[in-house]
Amino acid sequence: MIPRYSRPDMAALWSPETRYRIWFEIEAHALDAMAALGVVPKESAEAVWGWWATNPAIDVERIDAIEAVTKHDVIAFLTWVAEEVGPQARFLHQGMTSSDVLDTCLAVQLKRAADLLIADLDALLDVLKRRAYEHKLTPTIGRSHGIHAEPVTFGLKLAQAYAEFARGRARLVAARDDVATCAISGAVGTFANIDPRIEAHVAEKMGLSIEPVSTQVIPRDRHAMFFATLGVIASSIERLATEVRHLQRTEVLEAEEYFAPGQKGSSAMPHKRNPVLTENLTGLARVVRSAVTPALENVALWHERDISHSSVERYIGPDATITLDFALARLTGVIDKLLVYPERMQKNLDRMGGLVHSQRVLLALTQAGASREDSYRLVQRNAMKVWESDGKLSLLDLLKADPEVTALLSPAELEEKFDLDYHLKHVDTIFDRVFGQ
Amino acid sequence: MIPRYSRPDMAALWSPETRYRIWFEIEAHALDAMAALGVVPKESAEAVWGWWATNPAIDVERIDAIEAVTKHDVIAFLTWVAEEVGPQARFLHQGMTSSDVLDTCLAVQLKRAADLLIADLDALLDVLKRRAYEHKLTPTIGRSHGIHAEPVTFGLKLAQAYAEFARGRARLVAARDDVATCAISGAVGTFANIDPRIEAHVAEKMGLSIEPVSTQVIPRDRHAMFFATLGVIASSIERLATEVRHLQRTEVLEAEEYFAPGQKGSSAMPHKRNPVLTENLTGLARVVRSAVTPALENVALWHERDISHSSVERYIGPDATITLDFALARLTGVIDKLLVYPERMQKNLDRMGGLVHSQRVLLALTQAGASREDSYRLVQRNAMKVWESDGKLSLLDLLKADPEVTALLSPAELEEKFDLDYHLKHVDTIFDRVFGQ
Amino acid sequence: MIPRYSRPDMAALWSPETRYRIWFEIEAHALDAMAALGVVPKESAEAVWGWWATNPAIDVERIDAIEAVTKHDVIAFLTWVAEEVGPQARFLHQGMTSSDVLDTCLAVQLKRAADLLIADLDALLDVLKRRAYEHKLTPTIGRSHGIHAEPVTFGLKLAQAYAEFARGRARLVAARDDVATCAISGAVGTFANIDPRIEAHVAEKMGLSIEPVSTQVIPRDRHAMFFATLGVIASSIERLATEVRHLQRTEVLEAEEYFAPGQKGSSAMPHKRNPVLTENLTGLARVVRSAVTPALENVALWHERDISHSSVERYIGPDATITLDFALARLTGVIDKLLVYPERMQKNLDRMGGLVHSQRVLLALTQAGASREDSYRLVQRNAMKVWESDGKLSLLDLLKADPEVTALLSPAELEEKFDLDYHLKHVDTIFDRVFGQ
Amino acid sequence: MIPRYSRPDMAALWSPETRYRIWFEIEAHALDAMAALGVVPKESAEAVWGWWATNPAIDVERIDAIEAVTKHDVIAFLTWVAEEVGPQARFLHQGMTSSDVLDTCLAVQLKRAADLLIADLDALLDVLKRRAYEHKLTPTIGRSHGIHAEPVTFGLKLAQAYAEFARGRARLVAARDDVATCAISGAVGTFANIDPRIEAHVAEKMGLSIEPVSTQVIPRDRHAMFFATLGVIASSIERLATEVRHLQRTEVLEAEEYFAPGQKGSSAMPHKRNPVLTENLTGLARVVRSAVTPALENVALWHERDISHSSVERYIGPDATITLDFALARLTGVIDKLLVYPERMQKNLDRMGGLVHSQRVLLALTQAGASREDSYRLVQRNAMKVWESDGKLSLLDLLKADPEVTALLSPAELEEKFDLDYHLKHVDTIFDRVFGQ
């Protein structure tokens, strides 16, 4: 966890205090269910909840000190609770195993993390939608291979991003539900010493579903799927960040990250206005993705469980969620305040001497009776001249002067092929598909 | 693609011939739709489909030869079709771009691959269910950290695997539907030269949904999610394969891969019977997983598209699906024919002098009034003696001889704590959860 | 292995025939050494080498057929040799284990692959050096964050690439030597049934060093290091390929992949000239890198060996080396024939109204007595105006008109700060460092 | 950085204070060199070093506060220094760019980190060597595929680990020297505003070599190689940790992690003694390895530099080195105090009824004139009976009773084949190879 790439709510979710609070809730709800089943005295549950009602501070240092002796975190926590509550606390954790607490706690944390990330995605989607509609009909050049292709609109670029992040949101909802299970099944998961109804009670109270078959641990394919889903979302962040970085290039400059007054782009070069936020997002995407492989390696635990997954999750649990939360918020800010330059987009559109309309001419020639191969040849030989002139020659002019072309298409027909609106006629269709009608 | 790790149906799906057949279908269905819209002559579509009805062989070598000149695969294919069909073929591909064909074809291939994999999973699930019920009540030791913990049944192990692969199946269905989209939207995806109704027609005919917003290419977050899902399933294969490898260890030998007569385990050591299939599966899982990172790196294409994803997909498309198909089938065979040794399981269960019952004694002492800490100490001091005797001492005997223990629990009460059935009483509950009632 | 991304020498190295030839050499050299030690009859070695001297064809199909029965590749091979040679062949492989043959063969293959790759790197380095000197003093804008920074030369860009690939070459030499070890140590590596002098003899004959301690297998940290090194080289390929892709962007167009007459850039847009080779290299880099993680996962074999590494190596051994060989050769071709446009570089250099000289002014102001903060402010306020004018205003003109600036620097002093040669004065120093004096 | 997996020296290396101290040294040494060249007043350097000689506390909070305004870390630091030193500090950083400081600082940190890790490796190698000699001739069963193969010694296992970590050490030395370069080359690396002799001076003072050609940044292939090397070492840790985990399995129990008095293995099962340290190491290995892919992705920066690498390095720089440092120290402790049980090793060796000697019999039969195929068949048919008896039958007895066998080998000859020392005769050879004579 790197403070500069953290936001408070997500960071708090992974604090020791939050973890201990969740542990308490799991243990105390389990105690309630035991008491209801007559396994433990009702007084025990009352004493424990009574203490909790006093809103006691979590003494993390004291718990750490006990753990330094016992070398076991859950026992340390229970020992501290017993110190606070008194002898009634001795019924806590009865028939349970540490993993019941740890794995269910992790499920709660990942579920809450997913909820924060879903809210982040909603905020990003809102901004993308607003700016997409703002630039729904702002023409700009579409580029394949970094080379001018045909016109699109800036709104279409954002609509694509919207659709992509909407998919990411749907996948995250699925991954959240997949990972949000509760296991209170005792050693090796047989419920030998704990009634399955206790698990059901805790699951309901903690907002989880029950784990159908645990083996002391909740199976790690659930977590692998969760982190893989974060990795896909991170890759979508990289895609949109890369788009902004490209648009801000000196030679392109169709859009720009907002540049705050007083900000310094470079200690050496005062003129610089750099896309540092989106470059940073590119790096953060790599960080989030780096959680995927260890999460996959965590699946194949030995027999009913080993603890190799635990250290991995201490890193990737906080790091992947905190970093993705930060990255989504940062990206939302970038898009929200993005400086967009329609004049420059138009200027770039025009700089290729009309080459972007070459396909329409190709089709028209075909429809006028030329073979596909001949049409291609006719267009290409004129297009190449324009290309080599660096946009100084005009494709339309050259075509009008090519007798093989004019034998098939009149000047007026040729001119009609260079109309920009032709390319924008289905923007509404696409927006309807993406945002609904 | 490694022939020894391939099965014919999946391999055929990735052959040049299959690819060209799918290309034809996409182009020809698009032509139908164009003809219906009056954009091209109906005769063109009739000519093309008429030729197809003659069931022509796909001349892969000829297409390759054309591509060697044009350096463009789709143009090479269309040129070949034109050679075969004649001039009516010139209306094919009108307003379309190569990516319309390539990306929609890949969607078809990945969808069909997913269907094969889902069938593989179904076969595996069947076998797991059968063998889980066969050994529903076969007692065996549950192990955490590779150390004997408490009794489970062999059926529970397989039920866990069933639940895990059932989750994998559900995720694969979602990933399949996510990746199965059709884009026929022309250069940079604006439908400038092709009516969106053509896309809708092709999508329906090819069993795909439409891509709401493509940018010449179908966005690669879909593919990333697909390969990530394969990676999670591969990790589950690794988990079950690792279980078998452990069970077959010389000292454990509770189960064994089927050993065919005439098979040689080692060229040097004739006595060897090695878990080579599950070791192989462990390696194949690594191979499938290795597709995940490049698939994630493929997401951030530049602007409306670049072609960096293409070479990656030429490898991982076939490799990940063919390898996973093979691995699932191999795993199904391993489980189907797995030699299971219940006597050995019982023998291993008994070898620790009753230590596996220590938790029940712990709980009983607590319930008899001892503090948790005292109970733990009483059990541990006797358990350690048994442990150090390598199972020669009996925990029950030692407890009966410990006055601090007998002050709390009578010999009869102690004996009752060493009953195996106690651990199996919720197996039905778990089976009901996993397999339904 | 994808044929279109393969070159013949490297592909041949991974053919079954080459593998069997190497197996033969290992077995036959070992037999020689056994005969020299008197362990086997000299006639046996003579018979085996005598057969080999007839240059027998390797009957891959026959060997495959035997393996289909024995399910063991080395036994199948030895059985075939025995069929060919007759009873004297029965002394082959005595005291050896399959891994002795397989692992030593893989070492030979990886060493030869490394030699091919080193030759590839030498060819690339030659081309980089030639073109670096060709453009040693061709001015071009240096860019940080994609934004114009200060002038560099195009030769410096290539010198950087040269230095990077020279490092890659040195690392590959080290990785080659690391992986090129011979193990002929028998089951579990104790030499119980085979004299260590046999290993020494085979090692010398095959051009390998001896493996100091093998455990039936050669330890896989060696292979992990090898594939990791390939992954780093692949990443350097991605870096240089990305540079070319950027330079070829329509708006930048300072360099361009060679475009063959008759080549079609796009089936739909005849005007396109796309950087498809370098985009392809970007994807191929991802493929090579994808071998790193499974190679790392292969290290932790169980006890003296398991066979999980084997299937992984069947994929990544050929794929990573063949792909990298192809990619290096393709990159060499791209750089060799790269179209470089110095006029366009100059035009781009000039387009920012002299902003690229802002740092020199900053330093001059500091040296003229202004505080660093004041200097920065003075430059930035003028630079921002130029920036916002899209290069229409001139920084030099604005500075000359700023009284706070002219209070510190005279017009002549300001003009001197806008001299391009100032930036190139240490190019020789850098070239001397990179290429030697 | 996870405190529980950190050790103080390595953690301190990555603290803000250490970073600022290194920044100061770089800037101040550069200032010295500038003063020596007459570029800045000598008084400036004297003032700066004079202040430093007062051993001033680094006011991290103040620097953070300035950065919150400037949004630029190096400028914030220099501003703070100027506040402390006064106007003479204005000559600091002249002609330099932030990357000169940041990248050279990172090189210093990675070099120092490597030195700590090399010391860790030395400590581990010492322990491995001591325990290897202690158990040089302690017989134990060698296992391939988890199945008993032939005898080895426990010392050989440790000698293998020694050789593997010695390779890791050599690779780390190379990676350290590779990454330890100094770049003080100014914006885009041309030395336009800074003399190359300044770089040479700083390099010497900081214990680095000069970067031959930087482009504002030090090329990231160096860092990629560094982290890849850490990943290989981590994988070797996983291998040895996995060995211990296997040996501690209940059924094997040939070795055991030291178990401290008062330690609790399980909150629920008091009898457990789990290999939790080596399981933890398995997970930590995954964490260190997870740095490799993002480090590889960092190589392809855009043009002369972008800043996408920076956020990645903020995570993996500390995480990979701190975690590996902790893991090496933990592994050293595990091996140092490992409880080794030679009696149990012997017992396991004997449990297979002599099957581990099967190869010797196979070879003897061949040498007595049987074909390899017949020999294999004769041994296998007896070995399979022993195998199926679970070690109750004796291979020697069965062979003595097999007339086809006794036709070739006398009882005395057979008995001689079951001698354990036969397998240990080359242990000295291997130890000499590994540890030197």
From TrEMBL, chains A, B, C, D:
Source taxonomy: Bacteria, Pseudomonadati, Pseudomonadota, Alphaproteobacteria, Sphingomonadales
Pfam families for the chain: ADSL_C, Lyase_1
Organism expressing this protein natively: Allosphingosinicella ginsenosidimutans
GO CC field: cytosol
Gene3D superfamilies per record: Fumarase/aspartase (C-terminal domain) (1.10.40.30), Fumarase/aspartase (Central domain) (1.20.200.10), Fumarase/aspartase (N-terminal domain) (1.10.275.10)
Family note: Belongs to the lyase 1 family. Adenylosuccinate lyase subfamily.
SMART domains linked: ADSL_C
Pathway(s) per entry: Purine metabolism; AMP biosynthesis via de novo pathway; AMP from IMP: step 2/2; Purine metabolism; IMP biosynthesis via de novo pathway; 5-amino-1-(5-phospho-D-ribosyl)imidazole-4-carboxamide from 5-amino-1-(5-phospho-D-ribosyl)imidazole-4-carboxylate: step 2/2
Stored InterPro entries: AdenyloSucc_lyase_C, Fumarase/histidase_N, Fumarate_lyase_CS, Fumarate_lyase_fam, Fumarate_lyase_N, L-Aspartase-like, Pur_lyase
Domain Adenylosuccinate lyase C-terminal, chain residue ranges per copy: 353-435
PROSITE patterns associated with the record: FUMARATE_LYASES
Stated name of the protein: Adenylosuccinate lyase
